Structure formats: C-alpha cells, structure tokens
Hints:
This protein has helices at 14-17, 27-40, 47-106, 115-125, 142-156, 173-180, 189-212. Helix 2 crosses helix 3 and helix 5 (142-156) packs antiparallel against helix 7 (189-212). It is mainly α. The mean pLDDT is 81. The termini are far apart. The chain has 7 helices and no strands.
Amino acid sequence: MAKSTRAPWKRSNPRKRAGKASKHLSPAQKSAAKARARRAGRRYPNLVDNMRMAAKKKKKSSKKKSSKKTSKSKASKAKSTISAKKTRKRNAKTAKARKHRASAREKDPRGGLTAAGRKAFARKQGAHLRPGVTKPESEMTPQEMRRKGSWAVRFYGRAKLPPLVDGKGQPTRHALSAHAWGEPVPKTVAAARRIAAKGERLLARYRRAKVRA
C-alpha cells in the first residue's frame, strides 16, 4: 500500500479509526514540544512538535525493551557459563572418585597389589608382575630364592629408606610390601635391615645352587 503524502493534520487519527483511545503527551513532553516550537518560531500547540515528541517517546520505549532483552541475554549467558563450570567440576569429581575406587581395588590393603592391580600394571606399563614368594626357605626353588632375595635387598637394603610409618604411626605402603612377601611389616629401620639381610642370604643360596647346577 502506498504511503499517504498528505500532511498529518489533514489525515484522520489512525488510533480513532482502529477504535483505540488516543495517547496524550506527558507534561514534560509538552514542555519540550513547546520549547521546540519556540526555537523554530512556530505557534504552539501544533501537531508537528507534538508528533516529534511522541516519536521520541516510542524510541525511548524501544531502547528500554532492547536494554531489557540484552540484560536478559547476558544473565542467560552467565547462567549457562556457571552451569557449564558446575558440570565440569562435577565430572572431574566423578572421574577422580572413579580413579580412586579403581586404585583401591588394585591395591591390597594389607600390602602389595591385588590380581586386578597386577593386570592393570601390565596393561599400563607392559610389565608382568607375579605375586610375592611367601613360602618357607626350605620349600623355595632357586628362582624363588632369587626373586625374594632381589626384592628384599631392593626394598630394604638401599642406603636411604623411604618412611616406614606415617604421621599417625601406621605403616606406609612401602612397609606393607613386606606382607605380600610373607615377612613381618617393618616399622623401624633395624627391622627393615633384617629383611634385607635375609634377602642377601637367599641370593647367596641361589648363586650356590646355580653353580652346582
């Protein structure tokens, strides 16, 4: 439909045609329209200045709506960011708990690794670990003497030993390793050195058996 070129004061009020009540300017808008007319040298009241003030009102209203939409959008984005952070934190916590449970299954609480732990070690590092030798010396094969002797010297014969007890006086994992090899869990350096000395004897017996063979 072509836009009418008639002056607005010669056209009927579109709100009246639509059966809607007319909107009136606020006192502040009327004052602004009057000042505008005075600057332009026009008599007031007049339709031109009133229409201009009404148009400004619409623009301000549109800006307010746009501002509200922007603030809502920002709030929505902030909420989404917070939600994403919470999700990542929850996932990290779940992964950590899962890893902790897996680690607990792989470690024997009495010392050493469980069968699942040895399998996990083989999967991760390619090493094929075997359970510790717990037989009495009289029943050991030369290879078992070599294995246990090597472990005892490696763990408890080193110059500087790792801590054998924690701050609460409980044995550390290093100390608990002795249980997996059928030895008493050492809580002192002297006890650890006794296990290392036993390892040296087993290695000496292994070497003698090897020479005889």
